[in-house]
Amino acid sequence: MKRVFSGVQPTGNIHLGNYLGALKQFVELQNDHECIYCIVDEHAITVPQDPKELRKHILDVAALYIAIGIDPKKSIIFVQSQVSGHAELGWVLCCNSYTGELSRMTQFKAKSGGKESVGTGLLTYPVLMAADILLYDTDVVPVGNDQKQHIELTRDIAIRVNNKYGKTFVVPDGRFMKAGARIMALDDPETKMSKSAENIHSRISLLDEDSKIKKSIMRATTDSDGEIRFDPVNKPGVSNLLNIYSALTGKSVDEILAGQNWRGYGDLKKELVAVTQEALAPIKQNYEEIRESEELIRILKDGAERANAIAEPVMKRVRDKFGLGL
Ligand code: TYM
Asked: Which residues sit with their C-beta closer than 6 Å to ligand 1?
């Protein structure tokens, strides 16, 4: 069985973009892959976090993982900082990457742009991500499109180390959804949906109330020509709504358009509201049950043990190849 690894930052507001680009794949893959799903708290502290909030968000994401359908009996669910190999391998990989390639990453440029002083962790963020992936001899990494460049860097570092020290790492492949790989902000379809945007109506969070879902979709930015057609370049707003519809229902955009008699954007939006509310209702219900259960901590502790059992032999291989320790 091929091994899958992916992670989500515990920074609140897990939204439809996260779900349709990444999390939905996590669930699909667990039946015929060995899956490891991480809550990457060490990545979260590359920007300042309130410690109490961070702890809370770790459990929020863990509960959401289970609420969307990740089965802790089939898949490993754990918190990054509970397995010390991530930070250890991260350092080894820092010594095998270049500031030039890291400063060219578009996410680094976006997060550091215009700032007088930039934290080192923001620059080395993708190296820690490479460590997450390579620590488990991962074959497949399900992520959204915005992580493509980081996966390429991971592959480059793995190949570089393998060439220099002999076969050390498995070289992984990214896995991207057709419809959900890049969900755009509802208020500004030229930018991606994000956790941190100020306008709460730019995104739909997985735990949003039905009334909030309705408000955000009904006020989504479209255009003035009134024609419902999939054309991301000229009609990014309408195309984003169709894309979300497609990703939520599993129907292609052609199928969706063939079966409709919508008279305008209002009809499309109303139906998307219903589809979204229906898709998120069971997730919200499961979440409420799991979030407060004591089972959650037990699942994460068990997950960390199982993850560590896979990581430790890989770390030993790395120490041997590099001549670290005794
Ligand atoms: P994070 O927490 O920012 O995002 C989690 C996942 O959601 C995807 N995503 C999107 N997909 C489609 N449309 C969007 N608008 C959208 N916004 C976010 C992201 O691509 C991601 O898959 N660096 C990672 C976390 C990470 C990781 C890893 C992932 C750390 N180590 C190892 C895979 C393997 C991130 O930014 O996640």
From this structure: 5-9, 17-18, 21-22, 40, 43, 129, 132-133, 141, 143-144, 146-147, 180-183, 192-193
Q: Are residues 162 and 276 in the same domain?
A: no
**Residue 191 belongs to some domain of the structure:** no
Q: Looking at the annotation, which residues are catalytic?
A: 111, 192, 195
Q: What is the pLDDT of residues 19-62, one digit of tens each?
A: 999 999 999 999 999 999 999 999 999 999 999 999 999 999 99
Domain that holds residue 78: 3-181+295-322
Q: Tell me, yes or no, whether 255 and 275 share the same domain.
A: yes
- In ligand 1, the atom with minimum distance to the C-alpha of 138 is 34
pLDDT at 284: 97
CA of 227 to the centre of ligand 1 (A): 33
Q: Which pLDDT tens digit goes with each residue over 230-283?
A: 999 999 999 999 999 999 999 999 999 998 889 999 999 999 999 999 999 999
Contact 130, 136 (CB under 8 A): no
Q: Is residue 77 over pLDDT 90? A: yes
Contact 26, 37 (CB under 8 A): yes
The number of domains in the chain is: 2
**Is 316 in the same domain as 216?**
no
Residue 35 Cα to ligand 1 midpoint, Å, equals 16
**Calpha distance 38→8 (Å, rounded):** 7
